[in-house]
Amino acid sequence: MKYEHALQKAIKGRLERAMEMAELFGLFIIGIGTVAAMVHLIWRMMNSDGVSLTDLLLMFLYLEVFAMVGQYLKAGQLPVRFPLYIAMVSIARDLILRAGMNTELHLLASAGAIVLIALGVLMIRYGQYKYPSDTVEQKAEDTK
């Protein structure tokens, strides 16, 4: 019985380390892919007539992905807000890309989606402030 528990503990430890390595590998792949996409975008901007607003928004999206990866590496968790920020910028970029082809309904739906996502971010922030999951995080925010 004693040895079975030790064996289970050892297997569990190895599986946890394997999962951590898989996460790090995935983050590395995401980082490399983002760097490659950003380099490609910069190369395309340098070889074109100029820089458009959609190019800048796309670069902002890449930076948000980097911020997500960095936050995950620092804290070991990913706040839900980062993907929501990316979604808002993506919708705005889509509106700009399709500027001449947007119908009134598409504009209204896109603007409504951005407002709903922004309200979601506000609700999440309020919930984190009002009902913190960690007292250390709450003390750090109170001192700001």
UniProtKB/TrEMBL annotation:
InterPro entries: P_starv_induced_PsiE, P_starv_induced_PsiE-like. One of its GO terms (biological process) is cellular response to phosphate starvation. GO terms for cellular component: plasma membrane. The chain crosses the membrane at residues 21-43, 55-73, 82-101, 107-124. Its main location: membrane. Keywords: Cell membrane, Membrane, Transmembrane, Transmembrane helix. It is found in: Cell inner membrane. The keyword Ribonucleoprotein does not apply. Pfam families: PsiE. The keyword Cytoplasm does not apply. It is a multi-pass membrane protein. Belongs to the PsiE family. This is Protein PsiE. It comes from Paraburkholderia eburnea.
